[in-house]
Write a structure and sequence with these properties.
- The complex is a heterodimer of chains A (251) and B (155).
- Chain A is built from eight helices and five strands, in the order H-E-H-E-H-E-H-E-H-E-H-H-H.
- In chain A, strand 1, helix 2 and strand 2 form a beta-alpha-beta unit.
- In chain A, 41% of the residues are buried.
- With 155 residues, chain B is mainly alpha-helical.
- Chain B has a single domain, classed as Up-down Bundle (Four Helix Bundle (Hemerythrin (Met), subunit A)), CATH 1.20.120.
- The radius of gyration of chain B is 18 Å and the shape is elongated.
- Chain B starts with a helix and ends in a 13-residue tail after the last helix.
- The interface between A and B is large, with 37 and 40 residues.
- Chain B: InterPro entries: AHP1-5/YPD1 (IPR045871), HPT_dom_sf (IPR036641), Sig_transdc_His_kin_Hpt_dom (IPR008207).
- Chain B: Pfam families: Hpt.
- Chain B: Functions as a two-component phosphorelay mediators between cytokinin sensor histidine kinases and response regulators (B-type ARRs). Plays an important role in propagating cytokinin signal transduction.
Chain lengths: 251, 155
């Protein structure tokens, strides 16, 4: 299925703005990228149930093809479905989610599209790297409905702002160390009043694993502390600032 | 067996799966995603997991049988398995994978072989449990009943 259709919000708005309003609930189109078949099925469903249109692909290369950014076609050559959000797995063979993120942010046609990274590994250096490169958010797998709902809320709320704001998209540097901002904006809750200058959530969500909303007497997962290249044991930390103080895992 | 009895049996069985650590909260997430327009979602995803992972286990077995074991490759497979088991809430499989990965990192072949056995065991155990769960559900539906929602109260 070689449908390419992507435009940045800004460009789209000057052509014909298909969405009737920023809160047009069915119009959010998400491109999901994950090499795992199971995860693709789950994320696809999570998104559909949250009233998003979904295109799911299994690699970064295919994602770029879908976005119209492959060698054969110029980036402007699209004919229809614009992509409002890209959600990609980090660990993928071939092109990683990080590399995909970079490619998207390097493209003038695509850099406005928010990119969210998913990873099963809660590694601070990885999260930092992704945010520095311009990712909007970083979700620890397994992805939950609440993660997707939060993304949806920020998408629909954000649409209007993105269309108006100019040059807002170019710098995506997020400093996790802005502890005061972090604690006040409480990103894991979809707060309507996000900080004024950037209408995007400034910090990634860290879903503690296993699911915290259920009080089942489950044995806690014994994650042995591994060496530097292993995953950090996902502890139930919600606040990035606490994370900063407590761990120093780097990969 | 009448519907009410079957429903109670299902509830008890599901509870036991959580208590014994076979399932975790992620499975509940999946159940929440199931609705009238996607009545078979959970069965589909779980089946997909077992199909997909069977192949992974075979790949793992042959990777560990090589003359010179490529631990990075083994780890990559285990990482995949860990990820997908986590996505469906198969907690014990996931936990077994976590242990497995630490042996991969140490390049401990014996440890890895043991872990593979453990993972396989958990895998087939989980498969069995899911099959029972889905069969119970099918029986209820066939008898005209509805599947009771999993209640998260302290047990």
């Amino acid at each position: 299925m070689a449908r390419n259709g992507v435009a940045s919000w800004r460009r789209r708005s000057s052509d014909q703005f298909d969405d009737p309003s920023p809160c047009g609930s069915e119009d959010v189109h998400v491109l999901a990228v994950d090499d795992s078949l199971v995860d693709r099925k789950v994320i696809e469903h999570l998104l559909k149930i949250s009233s998003c249109k979904v295109t799911a692909v299994d690699s970064g290369i295919r994602a770029l093809q879908f976005l119209g950014l492959d060698e054969e076609k110029a980036a402007g050559d699209f004919n229809g479905l614009k992509v409002d959000l890209i959600i990609t797995d980090y660990c993928m063979p071939g092109m990683t989610g990080y590399e995909l993120l970079k490619k998207i942010k390097e493209s003038s046609a695509l850099r406005e599209i928010p990119v969210v990274i998913m990873s099963s590994e809660n590694v601070l250096a990885r999260i930092d790297r992704c945010l520095e490169e311009g990712a909007e958010d970083f979700i620890v797998k397994p992805v939950k409905l609440s993660d997707v709902k939060r993304l949806r809320d920020f998408m629909t709320r954000d649409v209007g702002d993105r269309v108006r704001s100019d040059g807002e998209g170019t710098t995506h540097k997020r400093k996790l160390q802005e502890s005061s901002d972090v604690s006040s904006s409480s990103p894991s809750v979809s707060s309507a009043s996000s900080s004024s200058s950037s209408s995007l959530p400034t910090t990634p969500s860290r879903s503690p694993s296993p699911s915290p909303s259920v009080s089942l007497s489950e044995p806690s997962s014994p994650s042995p502390s591994t060496g530097s290249s292993g995953p950090c044991s996902p502890s139930s930390l919600e606040s990035p600032t606490r994370r900063l103080k407590m761990t120093s895992c780097c990969d | 067996m009448e519907v009410g009895q079957m429903q109670r049996r299902l509830v008890e069985f599901t509870k036991s799966l959580f208590m014994e650590g076979f399932l975790d909260g992620q499975f509940l997430q999946l159940q929440q995603l199931q609705d009238e327009s996607n009545p078979d979602f959970v069965v589909e995803v779980v089946s997909l997991f077992f199909q997909d992972s069977e192949k992974l286990l075979n790949d793992l077995t042959s990777a560990l049988e090589q003359q010179n074991v490529d631990f990075k490759k083994v780890d990559a497979h285990v990482h995949q398995l860990k990820g997908s088991s986590s996505s469906i809430g198969a907690q014990r499989v996931k936990n077994a994978c976590v242990v497995f990965r630490s042996f991969c990192e140490e390049q401990n072949l014996e440890g890895c072989m043991r872990c593979l056995q453990q993972v396989k065991q958990e895998f087939y155990l989980a498969k069995n449990k899911f099959e029972t769960l889905f069969t119970l559900e099918q029986q209820i539906l066939a008898a005209g009943g509805s599947i009771p929602a999993t209640e998260i109260t302290s047990f």
